[in-house]
Amino acid sequence: MAFLIGIDIGTSGTKTVLFDLEGNTVASALREYPLYQPQQGWAEQEPEDWWRAVCATLLEVTGKVGVCAQEIKGIGLSGQMHGLVMLGAQGEVLRRSIIWCDQRTAQECVEITEKTGARRLIEITANPALTGFTASKILWVRNHEPQVYEQCRHILLPKDYIRYRLTGEFATEVSDASGMQLLDIRRRDWSDELLQTLGIDKSLLAPVHESIEITACVSREAASLTGLREGTPVAGGAGDQAAGAVGNGIVREGVLSSTIGTSGVVFAHTDSPCIDPQGRIHTFCHAVPGAWHIMGVTQAAGLSLKWFRDNFCSNEKETAALLGIDPYVLLDKEAGLVPAGASGIFYLPYLMGERTPHLDPDARGVFFGLSAIHTRRDMLRAVMEGVAYSLRDCMEVIRQTGVTAGEVRASGGGGRSALWRQMQADMFGCPVCTVNSSEGGALGVALLAGVGAGVWADVRQACDAVIRTGAAQEPDAGAAGIYSARYETYRALYGALKDLF
């Protein structure tokens, strides 16, 4: 037997999955770790927590099924993007990682834009300066913790720190590096012009590879801690969004994915760089060599429903615990009892500001249209519809670039909801389906590792070999008409409230 491993270093925990060569999950394990918020708007994690989780989950998945280390043909790494890991001369971590959702770097974004020029920055990196990206975090440390910056000898992304611990080698790959805002997106390599302008020494950054390349092999030390075989190949891997796209088969034009996790992402493959001059969507290098992707992001998609569940649905949580089911199953059934249109209520899902299409960190969540006739169930339906409207916002901007959507593949926790999938089909005006594996990013990077190890010739062949789509949910003409009319009001609400936020 032969197997592949995908390791996904997420924000809430690390998930490690063992796959056979048909893409079936043989074993999986998850370990969670804390998020530190020392000040309002700050978000940090300990890289050592990630490493301990990786070691524990690797030992667990191989121990569950007694897989021989010799049978593991390759390892792929996925992870939360944009996080800043700073190492000293001996490879020691100098400070906690400032992760993707940290918002402290507004002034550094101004600094980047003023030094580079807003237009030139988008020309090089395809994106405006954003607080979530890594470049502004590097400048924040230089501006506020100069003693740490002076000791820094290596700058890595979260998954690439795990690569270093597994192999002893420093490397990154194009999809994750795109989110640092230091990469020339067209050239698929670091931008010497931008690094010089910002005064960042290029030697601090790891060499850039394509996602399928074998970047290094498991070291003897890591093998002793993880149960892996010394010399096991470790592929470049991918940032979480590109990895999830590969795991959903988004490796050709015309097929898009819509992911509802904590955030929401509409993701499209492109065969050439497609840049929005207004910076409303992100353009990054794809994990497919010679390809790119564009994505629109809504900050609080699944987070909106989780917030509503945690604050207003204690009865459902208690009932679900007694029945041994997920509380979201009950919420889905309740929301399904309310007709399309949520009885006239609108919800703006801006709990964490918004990216696409507004790029407004000050935007805030809103219920609009409440009256005495409304119930909690109406509000629940409005939350789900509001998230779907925000994903339509993303889809509309993507379509403005010339990308067509013949099919949308739903994923993430929200992708398991038939109701949410139907809302998206109705709002997007195209079929929405699921795929046969729910492992997303872990499967995606396992496939990338398989290509690197020679199991498949290229990424498309790997996806064709293992990914199958389920029955599609077609748009319902009646609901689509209701949503189309109400979407204009939804869009108008942000403009009406923007100055008040």
Describe, in plain words, how this protein is organized in 3D.
This protein has 501 residues and is of the alpha/beta class. It folds into three domains: 3-239, Nucleotidyltransferase, domain 5 (2-Layer Sandwich); 243-298 and 396-466, ATPase, nucleotide binding domain (Nucleotidyltransferase, domain 5); 302-393 and 477-500, Nucleotidyltransferase, domain 5 (2-Layer Sandwich). It contains 18 helices and 23 strands. A hairpin with a 3-residue loop joins strand 16 (255-260) and strand 17. The termini are far apart.
In short:
This protein is of the alpha/beta class and 501 residues long. It folds into 3 domains: 3-239, Nucleotidyltransferase, domain 5 (2-Layer Sandwich), CATH 3.30.420; 243-298 and 396-466, ATPase, nucleotide binding domain (Nucleotidyltransferase, domain 5, 2-Layer Sandwich), CATH 3.30.420; 302-393 and 477-500, ATPase, nucleotide binding domain (Nucleotidyltransferase, domain 5, 2-Layer Sandwich), CATH 3.30.420.
Main structural class: alpha/beta
Proportion in helices: 25-40%
Ranges where pLDDT stays below 50 over 5 or more residues in a row are: none
Under CATH, the homologous superfamily of the largest domain reads ATPase, nucleotide binding domain
Give the total of domains: 3
What is the overall silhouette? globular
- Let me know the average pLDDT: 95
State the CATH topology of the largest domain: Nucleotidyltransferase, domain 5
